Amino acid sequence: MAQFERVDVCIIGGGPAGLMLAEGARRKGYSVTLIEAGFTGGAGANWGAIPSQALAACAHRAHLIRNSGQLGIGADEPRINFARINGHIRSIIAETAPDHSPEHLKAIGVEVIIAQARFSDRRTVLANDRAIRAKHFVIATGALPNIPAIPGLETIEYLTPHTIFELTRRPAHLLVLGGGATGMSLAQSHLRLGCEVTVIDMLEPLSDHDPELRAVGLRALEREGLGLFANTGIVGIGKNGDTIEVEIKSGPNEQVLTVSHVLLAAGHTPSLEGLNLAAGRIKRTPRGLLLNKNFRTSNPRVYCIGDATGDVASIGTARQHCEKVLAQIGNPFSILPQPFASEPLQIDVTYTDPELAQIGLNEPAARQRHKNRFAVTRLPFAQNSKALANRQLNGHIKLIVHASGRLLGASIAGPQAGEIASLAALAIDNGLSVVELARAPMVYTSYGQILSSAASRHLQEHQLAPIWHGLPLGKHLLP
Questions:
Q1: For the residues of 460-472, what is the DSSP string, one character each?
Q2: What is the pTM of this model?
Q3: Cα dihedral value 438, 444, 446, 447, nearest 10
């Protein structure tokens, strides 16, 4: 075996979480080695968020053309060229590649090894013929699409969220198995690009979101023509000539759907195979690795962040994982458990139209944690000037405010909900009160203005309205 290479931090996985940690560790002056078995950038850059957003942009343009009549503009049905759409997606992936390339990492001082990593003992990782001994290891290997055990699945060529962007011809009828954020956003994109689309979920679609906001999104999708089966299971799948037959069951009712393509979007599983975790003294659970609240594994030298933790981690959540791990690494006594002042702020965004966003606590979580010491305030997008001008009136914002006036959470269904979520997250993460949020300077007119307007509504409803240039805060008074 080659001599041991010693380094401060060894990161296994070059996806968004691993890249953020590598850059953060380098800024702190640590020596860093990053091992990646495939492509740096991970699923988000190569098969996930970036191509998904590129596809959604194409679908949104098609939708705008169809619905320009309400703004006084006539248009014909858009002509969809799936091969050119695929080319657009490939070009976006290529244009963003330099930001996470091995060359970029090397330029900031990160040693990059393209190889499969595996533990040989509790303090050594092997990659090709190299042996890395680090003060700290971080597993950031991401997650892979679940492949459910469905009778007959092996007889068809199915798609996953990683392979669907390879399509160069439009599916006649796309069946999406899974009604989570990924499945629903891909379903709507293909629906708007002229496909017939059906979604099947074993439980309730978009169940991670606040029920009343979820209902807003589902109604909009069904109005666009999405076929939706909730609380429905798959009995079997089989090939029939050029089509695929899917037998489904909902309660006592069974039927057969005939489709052209099947997309498996039933969640993800941490990508941990091949790491030889047993040799590293790293314990597993049915959901993934055994982790404490500081993202440390049973081997105190090893941490785990991002999607590899077993949770659906947004980029914002992954960044918080990185910050906490860097805080542990920077502590000379970090071999001992270290408490943290707060949990990572959960930010969930589903890029359907309308977008759905959940930041911090939703109403059920707030009730469980704070009993009745909070209040809920709602404001519809129909009272937002930007939404009114664009005729995007579907949806509303919902603020969860503690009795002390501190913002605990926000649920949003409406245009640019993901962008507004960033403002809400900043407010929550900095402990802003609803008074401070109401007084926050917001661009007039903007979708983000609905956040401060909702805070003003809360103050007005609870008779706490401060004075803003001599006027009580309320509807249409706060720019």
A1: HHTT---EETTEE
A2: 0.89
A3: 30
